[in-house]
Design brief:
This protein has 194 residues and is α/β, with parallel strands linked by helices. The protein has one domain: Rossmann fold. Helices cover 35% and strands 14% of the residues. The chain contains 6 helices and 6 strands. Strands 3-2-1-4-5-6 form a 6-stranded parallel β-sheet, with helices on both faces. Strand 4, helix 5 and strand 5 form a beta-alpha-beta unit. Helix 1 packs parallel to helix 6. It is globular.
């Protein structure tokens, strides 16, 4: 039974400043107000799940062990600095095809990571949100049955539009993300017994 809504969050360019192929925890820098925003969303009852494409693993830019150090550091800092305990942190280790299309079911814009997290943690996808800085993030959320927010930090450069690539909101700061998600949660929460 799927019971809890989630906020799925892209890592690079959304949660943290995008530094391509970085695995050095010392270089992790939050997007402005991101930890505080996740704390507000977690306090409101949302599971917080990071979903991240990490083609650097397939390309040999860093090892699985190096990425694990970074993942642990990110989780520990979120907990220490904002009291946010991630429900999960999923990543796709595959590179795209030469055409740029996903070569697997987990690489965004495919919804595989979101669907896996929903099954693992009994998440209500229809009441959940995907927040990311590219239209591939938006599409992954929409394909999984979530609503999507484009966090416009400059990550999207191609602007390939399509019906599944239209976000419910386009924002430039994390305060706007929180406002939109919580406003919709208040107006769309079903009455008990319905």
């Amino acid at each position: 039974m799927n019971t809890r809504p989630a906020v799925f969050v892209d890592k690079d360019g959304t949660l943290v400043v995008d530094r391509p192929y970085n695995v050095d925890p010392a270089l992790l820098a939050w997007q402005p107000a991101a930890p505080q925003a996740l704390a507000a969303l977690a306090q409101a009852g949302f599971a917080i799940v990071v979903v991240s494409n990490q083609q650097g693993l397939a390309l040999g830019r860093f090892s699985a062990a190096q990425f694990e150090v970074l993942r642990q550091a990110l989780q520990e800092r979120l907990l220490a600095e904002a009291g946010v305990e991630l429900t999960d942190f999923l990543f796709c280790p595959h590179a795209p095809l030469a055409s740029g299309a996903p070569a697997c079911a987990c690489r965004k814009p495919e919804p595989g990571m979101l669907l896996a997290a929903a099954e693992r943690h009994q998440l209500d996808l229809a009441a959940s949100w995907m927040v990311g800085d590219t239209l591939d993030d938006v599409e992954a959320g929409r394909r999984a049955g979530c609503r999507s927010i484009l966090y416009d930090s400059g990550g999207e450069t191609l602007w390939r539009n399509g019906p599944l690539r239209a976000p419910q909101a386009r924002v430039q700061d994390w305060d706007e993300v929180v406002h939109r998600v919580l406003a919709d949660a208040r107006t769309e929460r079903p009455e008990p017994g319905r």
